[in-house]
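Hi R.,

Here's the chain you asked about this morning:
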Amino acid sequence: MIFRSGARLIAARMAVAVGLLAGALAAAGSAGGAAPPTGPLWTARWISVPDAPAFDYGVYHFRRAFDLPERPARFLVHVSGDNRYQLFANGTRVAVGPARGDLDHWRYETVDLAPHLAAGRNVLAAVVWNFGAGAPQAQVTQQTGFLLQGDAEAEALVGTDKAWRAARDAAYSPLPVPPAEIHFQYYVAGPGDRVDAGSYPWGWETPGFDDSAWPAAQEGPRAAAREAVDAPSRWMLVPRTIPAMDEHPLRLARVRRATGVEVPASFLRGAAPFTVPAHARATVLFDQDHLATAYPDLSVSGGRDAVVTLRYGEALFVPGSKRKGNRDEVEGKEMRGLRDEFVADGGARRRFRPLWWRTYRYVQLEVETADAPLSVDDLSATATGYPLVRKARFEAGTPELERILDVGWRTARLCAHETYMDCPYYEQLQYAGDTRIQALVSLYMTGDARLMRNALELLDTSRTAEGLTLSRAPTRLQQYIPPFSLWWIGMLHDYWRYQDDPDFVRGLLPGVRAVLSFFAERQGDDGALTPLPWWNFVDWARAWPRGVPPGSAPLEMQLLLASEEAADLEQAVGSPARAAELRETGHRLRASIQARYWDPARGLYADTPAHDRFSQHASVLAVLASMVEGAPARAVMDRVLSDPTLVPCSIYFRHYLHAALNRVGQGDRYLELLSPWREMLAAGLTTWAETNEPDVRSDCHAWGASPNFELFRTVLGIDSAAPGFRRVIIRPFLGQLAGASGSIPHPRGEISVDLRRSGRRLDAEVELPRGVEGDLVWGDVRRPLPSGRTKVSLGGGAP
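And here is the predicted structure, written out as tokens:
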């Protein structure tokens, strides 16, 4: 097994190398291999700072002055950088990027600079940084570089070449997170910044800055072009497909404690500074009152050589332990984790803003002054994230459910930036298992599918020669979780059901086939999976080391589920013959699973062929894969919820537990199963934690936001009944609620429902988008729904 895995890895790397060469050669025909026909003809060159290291940590500035006879009506530029860049036009920040991708799909942004330009002299300026060996794991990189090219008349005026000036910023150095401060947890979100104000080129981005001492930029490879391969780019350029990140002002809510200084109440509003005397130390703990992802903005004056430290925490810790306790409590607790440092130079209103956003509820400001007092003028922030807009509405007269939705919405927003991410504090990585749930929340809450498409594509292009997607993408480190490749198929199936975009789905079918081929090669004659390589994570179940079940039942059932989903896709937009093959293969696998894992004595599916280990997961997946249906399936779910000896689902996998209840018609039990979310609210969390034991690690994991999907899909009962959401089913499960109302966005408009129950009777008002029809199901009664508004009364539901 070791030899075979090694051989496959070598083959995968060779395939990647061949792919890179092919991409470079293809540049002559497709603007970097993937840009649309309207993309730029790349003539600009990547530039860097002369004699600067290509791969190590560094922060760099670039400037280009140019003259215009008059203010233009339109001035398009295409811009990118490695690792990251910010672009300024006449002192105004106009672009941030690149949107994260991989080297074969390196994003560029297109910006119209016209509103920021004027007749006469204009200046473009950019800051580019490379975090080197400490770069975030989600940040793919080739080497430090900056690229900008203008359209039409702008091309000769601003394209990156030796006419740009460049300089390294010696003020910056990295601040890695000490492993002990995060209990040696997996932290890969990048370092903090240390900035020495005495070395910083203040005003570098403004037109009046004197850059005459800066050298000319060093030209690197020509950008990947349609018609030239003489110096092919290492970055295969493709256009950004997601919008710019949202940014809005954010102010800290409270001072929780302060030593060595008094902080006036109006400081929090930016209306009054406070001063730390010379040769003094002061510490102030600020509370945002809720978790945020934001760029802190610190302003100080005077205090030459004072060291100002900003520490960021999701929560505070009990000293000497990993315990966080109630997140609202700060007494007897300490701050640990990521920090930034700013060394003052004595200047007035010096501003510090980190290169990358921070995740925090608590911010601790620490000041140590030297020979001069330091004035802390202000500490504010700019919140940032993907521009999701909350459109869904849910009303049931229950403040607790409204609070659960609000916390889930915040969790989903903080875990959505240029990609979805598992957690904004520790990793910022887009895992397929997390992302499937996050995408469903986005679709139901906002109707915006662009980040979901982006995720599907990034995971698809991460596939290696063996067929699997990586567990996460983009990433600098190859990691495989074979079950997550199956969830990627499920995510594509979700997209097919809820978005009317068959061409996109068809384009990803080769990836679906490759994933299933990987598993097919590892099945015996009876369909059983042989031991799979790598990390076969299923759920953070406490009884399972590293989340890996003791037997193959959950994996085989997930494979069956993915095979059925792939058959649906092939039948609809691919090959009906292949769909038939998949269904036949699924039929054989279904029979072998039933023979191996069904335990008639317990009425449950075992995790192992020996029937010596049982979990909720195996039976939940069996129900979702239609291993058992009707009354027998309901009996299985009754035992899943009542048998205390089963390994329970964590927050993550409860999404599938709840889906199974919905599938068998037991959705009325859903509201009774929200105790983990209620416990997190009682513990002061403002976002949902990674696991049921929220002291373990992350306080923000959007897989826990599944109620923001299920309250609409299960309680209000709104779901897709045909590909592309072209038909709707309304099958509500109100539990103990007397009524509920709400709406979700739909590709053609909005679906709204108003439900009122009296005994077994349901009074419903449903409005469907124009041209969309559906059915209302209440118990054993089904009533067709035309498009538009319909009022209907039904009997037959359970009281």
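One quick note: The two ends are 57 Å apart (CA to CA).

Cheers,
M.
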